[in-house]
Design brief:
- GO terms for molecular function: metal ion binding.
- Keywords: Metal-binding, Repeat, Zinc.
- Residues 212-302 form the CS domain.
- Pfam families: CHORD, CS.
- By secondary structure, the chain is mainly β.
- It has two domains: 4-98 and 122-207, btk motif of tyrosine-protein kinase itk; 212-330, Immunoglobulin-like (Sandwich), CATH 2.60.40.790.
- The protein is built from four helices and 23 strands.
- It has helices at 51-55, 154-157, 186-190, 205-209, and strands spanning 4-5, 14-15, 25-27, 32-35, 38-41, 47-48, 61-63, 87-90, 93-96, 159-162, 167-170, 173-176, 182-183, 196-199, 217-221, 225-230, 241-244, 248-254, 261-267, 278-281, 286-291, 311-319, 325-330.
- A four-stranded antiparallel sheet has the order 15-16-21-20, with no helix packed on it. A three-stranded antiparallel sheet has the order 4-5-6. It has a three-stranded antiparallel sheet with strand order 11-12-13.
Length: 333
């Protein structure tokens, strides 16, 4: 079944009618309120100053998704389809889409000192995700007015139609700084089609530049195994791998709620039997069970950087003539 786009304010998500329920849609039942640089909705108390934060205010009303009305003017989906409509000045007021009466002469507004436009060092359309970036399934596109979410590798190259500028509200008219179209109603403003075409961008620039994180780990041992806990909360089971060699443990983990990754290769203190090792991805950690290649007690999990283990430790179950655990000194270089 084809997906539909919800027309409720603050939602605009895609959905399938068969999955549409009484609690599927979180939206706003009121109208947008802009006052003294604060932005919010009349139906809930939260106020923000940034327009992007305003667009992301969670809905305060729960109900069913409602499709965009078939009678609504279609939203342009390509830059070629975005055309400017006439704006005239009548009695000193800006009126969208109305022709000036014959007896009324359009008067330009009072001139204001022009302020040079500040050109960003990097244009929005040039900020793309790295080809090998780790992107969680379900991540929303960061580009303005785009509602696409990441569904897999095909989303990396899919076409994105978006606005690269900022919203402009002036004397009742509403639009974007990157294109000429202006409207009066806020609902119509939300439907102004993008004027730029490029690739989707799912990661914030700061996140894309620094994705790798460190995770705390702990370990303990039994006579035959070493159990290692990697505290990687909300690791994505489908995109987490653990590999074993006789002397190393390698972990690569991605997360469900962020684009960060955890990658580490641990040189092990003693040898293991790789084919008998296993791991589990749990809600708060990755638990790894290493099968010892011998019956020795491990003095440490990780081999020191100089490659030398110097510590007295015992084997499990080996006794000397006095009934005591027999010490074994191990020096590895």
């Amino acid at each position: 079944m084809a997906s539909l786009t919800c027309g409720n304010k603050g939602c605009n998500k895609k959905y399938v009618e068969d999955d549409n329920g009484e609690t599927s849609c979180e939206h706003h039942s009121g109208a947008p309120v802009f006052h003294d640089a604060l932005k919010g909705w009349s139906c809930c108390p939260k106020r923000v100053t940034d327009f992007n934060d305003f667009m992301n205010i969670p809905g305060c009303t729960v109900g069913r998704h409602v499709p965009v009305s078939a009678t609504t003017t279609p939203v342009p989906t390509t830059p070629a389809a975005v055309t400017a409509k006439p704006t005239t000045i009548i009695d000193g007021k800006e009126v969208y889409g109305a022709a000036a009466p014959a007896a009324t002469k359009a008067t330009p507004p009072a001139s204001k000192p022009s302020t040079p436009a500040v050109t960003p060092a990097i244009k929005e359309e040039d900020l793309n995700d790295a080809p090998n970036a780790v992107i969680p399934i379900g991540t929303s596109c960061k580009r303005k007015t785009c509602t696409h979410t990441f569904t897999g590798d095909e989303s990396r190259t899919a076409e994105c139609v978006f606005h690269s500028g900022s919203p402009i509200f002036h004397e009742g008219s509403k639009g974007w700084s990157c294109c000429s179209r202006k409207v009066l109603e806020f609902d119509e403003f939300l439907k102004i089609g993008g004027c730029k075409v490029g690739k989707h961008r799912f990661l914030d620039q700061e996140t894309a530049e620094s994705q790798s994180i460190e995770c705390r780990r702990d370990w303990y041992q039994t006579p035959t195994t070493v159990i290692v806990s990697i505290f990687a909360k909300k690791a994505d089971k489908a995109r987490t791998t653990v590999t074993f060699t006789p002397t190393t443990l390698s972990i690569s983990a991605a997360f469900l709620d962020s684009a960060k990754t955890y990658v580490e290769e641990i040189p092990l203190a003693l040898e293991i039997a790789p084919d008998a090792c296993k791991y589990m991805v749990l809600g708060t950690k990755i638990e790894v069970t290493l099968k010892k290649a011998n019956g020795l007690s491990w003095p440490t999990l990780e081999m020191p950087k100089d490659g030398v283990l110097v510590k007295s430790f015992t084997t499990f179950g080996v006794r000397d003539g006095n009934g005591q655990d027999a010490p074994m000194n191990l020096i590895q270089k």
